[in-house]
Amino acid sequence: MMTFKQYFTNYLEELPMTNAPHATTGSPRRDATQAFPGNGSAQAKEAFEKLSAATADAAALIKNSYSTVKGAQDYNNKVLEFAQTNTEAAFDFAQKLSDVKSPLDFIELSTEHSRKQFETLTGQTKELAALAQKVTLATAEPLRTGATKAFSQLG
Q: pTM value?
């Protein structure tokens, strides 16, 4: 049985290279239609319905991708928040450095700042990883399901 795609491809290949409206009898269009098995309009309708369903699924897929964009915005906002926190910590450290009077005070201040920053960065990294995993899990499944469904309807 010939598919709609095969029929349409054959139809296009057999079209005459003229725009003459009088070329109807014995035309390749008529021959291709007669060669099409079964009811051509029923198969065209079926192909149209499949295409419509695939288009609807693609629209749903686009709507679901909003969660991807939202997740990326949340992640970026968190990165900016962390950057602000880290910048403030660096300025505080610089301000405290200006008050240092001895090498021992410098070492103590540097050690304390390094320890606090290491703890802060470790927490921030864990938080970003958890957020990235949450966003990935929330968006991957709808996208995979939608894409699979859309492509299966076209085939």
A: 0.52
